[in-house]
Known about the structure:
The chain contains 9 helices and 20 strands. It has helices at 46-54, 100-110, 115-128, 144-156, 174-191, 202-208, 226-231, 236-241, 359-362, and strands at 6-17, 20-31, 35-39, 61-66, 69-73, 85-88, 162-166, 195-199, 211-216, 219-224, 246-252, 256-260, 263-266, 279-284, 289-293, 302-312, 316-323, 326-333, 343-348, 354-357. A hairpin with a 2-residue loop joins strand 17 and strand 18.
Amino acid sequence: MSNPTTILSVSGLKKLFGNNTAISDVSFHLAKGEVVSLLGPSGCGKTTTLRCIAGFYSVDGGEIKVSGRTIASTGVFVPPEDRRLAMVFQNYVLWPHMRTFDNIAYGLRLRRMPKREIEERVNEIMRALGLSGLAQRYPHALSGGQQQRVSVARSLVVEPDILLLDEPFSNLDAKLRVDMRQEMRSLLKRLGTTAIYVTHDQEEAMVLSDRIFLMSGGKIVQEGRPIQLYERPATRFTAEFFGVSNFLPATVTEEGLDLGSGLRVRGAVERGDFKAGDKVLVAMREDGFEVTPGTEGCGENAFGATISNRLYLGGSTQLQLESNGVSFNARVVGSAPLEWPDQAMLRLRPERVMLVPDESDAR
């Protein structure tokens, strides 16, 4: 059951396109002032979910409520313009014949608001988004980042109950994208705006979101705060999506983990709900290892390995290593590993070990 601050409730949502199920049984709640992300790879159903909420698609099952009012179900369809929602698209969709001020004011004029109030609200949102000196410019005279700010301002100025953002920064260059998402987070929190952000970029989702809903195959497969999904993935899919590249079959023991081939990890292993005897996958990020050149031991959980490949990445060097038939991907700060011998000592840092179910074993 949702709490009194719930502004959006999505329950058992389903959407079909012909015989294809785009989303099935999607459910979540959104609190007033909360910013969440629908995150996942292409085709996972995140944009379809957003468009069902916006009213661009009817639904084939389930229910969507805003502030307790049903806006979509199999028997109800409230038109987009009556939902008190606003959407920011990938492409900015600005009127090319209108100046910045007029593009932003467009929705307010449709609502026949008094001219003075329109001017006050547009000027206020332009100040908030750093657009004050650009009021008389046409879209073609604005940079990509400025055009996107105008698009965001146009959506925020109408004071929607919920702001919907569909990968709004995907057309920007990498540096501007980083700057814009930081600005967006600050702006949404300063204004107290409730927002749903669709993206395929896990870093973008972590920067912007209070909570993340990770989607795959038309369903939400894990939800939680960014730190929860990053540090406590529940499945291999979640771990891979958040950058884990090492998955090592293991058995949970009373002392730690048995990786086979004589490799064992002892110490502060996060077991979650696993117990001794369970088959699991040890999930390790590339920075979860300590690597030292040569064959001298470096303490508990260390074993000899052979460096099979080195990739210099600027601030760090990626190493591919092998030990007793087990392969590892590790990353070491700096370029020194380029000069190391092929033999090295590899230590798994127990505090960086994550465990996920071995789904192949379950089958």
